[in-house]
Amino acid sequence: MVRDKLQEANEFIKNNKHKLNKEYRLNYHLMGEYGWINDPNGFIYYKGKYHLFYQHYPYEAVWGPMHWGHAVSEDLVKWSYEPIALAPDTNFDKDGCFSGTSIEKDGKLYLVYTGHVYTGVDKSKDYKQTQGIAYSENGIFFEKYHGNPVINSNQIPEAANKKDCRDPKVFKIDDIYYMVLGSNDEKGNGQVLLYKSKNLINWDFVNILAKSDGNIGTTWECPDLFKINGKDILMVSPQYMKPQGNNYHNIHSTVYITGNLDLKKGIFNINGYNPVDYGFDFYAPQTALDSKGRRIVVAWMEMWESKFPTQERGDNWCGAMTLPREVVLKDNKLFFKPVSEIENYRKNEVSLENISVNGENLLPITGDSYELQIIFDAKHSKEFGIKLRTSETEETVLTYSVEDKLFIFNRDKSGIGPKGERKTEVELIDNKLNLQIFVDKSSVEVFINEGEKVMTGRIYPSRESINLKVFSKGDCNILSLIKWDIK
Length: 487
Ligand code: FRU
Fold this sequence. Notes:
Number of helices: 2
Structural class: mainly beta
Radius of gyration: 22 Å
Strand content: over 45%
Mean pLDDT: 97
Distance between the termini: 41 Å
Bound molecules: beta-D-fructofuranose
Oligomer: single chain
Number of strands: 31
CATH topology of the largest domain: Tachylectin-2, Chain A
Shape: globular
Largest sheet: 10 strands, antiparallel
């Protein structure tokens, strides 16, 4: 039976791949081979390669019974597809192999994930979530543990919802495996449960590791816990978090929480929290440590309950991952930088210097798939910025308001996708603004002031919208602008 569902899914993709509409397919971001994808799963550097699994419904570009898709890469930029790793084909996971993690043990690759099972007719309420494992000798073909689940509903503590417990992330410290599990307290507050195990099979509940104070969303999905330069970071994806100032305006958010981890007591003392990304489309991030000692984060570059043009148009695919970003700690804050491997894909460099702007200038460059590095000197400008993917009717606008100290990403005229604006506070440094922008067919990722903040959004302009413009109210100078096609 196991082979059958997997085989069916793999064959379906092979036989239907030619039906993809590629117009909005990205050139240097990971997408599913066909159908739907959401969260990154099981992100790991294993036996010399990066493995990234993902929530996947291969048959249609809509969310459905979750499989685990699988891609591998040597450099985090160029990915190749492996056969689907998990299909919902046992009693424990028959309605979905939900999100989870992977870990190497005795040379084998273990997947630890949530089995989703419907228990009644109302799918929004009648379900059960338990945790199970699968393993592989080669990291490609997985066998599910016959004793699944390894964490059943009776191992969920009283102070936690027995149904919403999902998305295990596992790590090892001093020969003990620990698991953080997404949860809520049934009173509308997100929380994370901590478990431990000696063998990945027998798990003991330790404690409720951390919990919302009432302001950080209802269920904490996809938790991740790691140390960076000695600092403990808890990353979670809180559902239905309410806006706070300019932050958290999407239906669901992502935050990284700084604090102190007391593993013995199973407590993460919260100091503070910040968004991981300040744009529109960034959810369920997951990190991995690689052989170079880098902590890399990748997220689903979409947002739930949003409009998905490739789904609506019948393009037969939906969902993409962000560029993998290196997580760097600076002044007690996390900075996010595109992995340096992307530099190997730069082509056709165009470099411009000292462009004075007052009004609007069309730049002598075009493209739909590129990297741009710009340094603006604000001079006497009140407001300046750049317009991407422009034509007579379309534009995606990035504005810096000097008076309000706000950076603004507006996609009201970006084409057929969802619209709107996201804002975030940014300080000029010596009166300068430094932007590193990645545009890829239907995506924009803006790294502001060397990764201090990142804004990510999907856009769906028409093919002709390939121009770029810069603008300013008052005198402004572009000290340098470099553009590379990324192919
Ligand atoms: C997050 C999420 C997870 C769940 C998965 C199901 O986007 O809701 O909590 O495991 O998606 O596909």
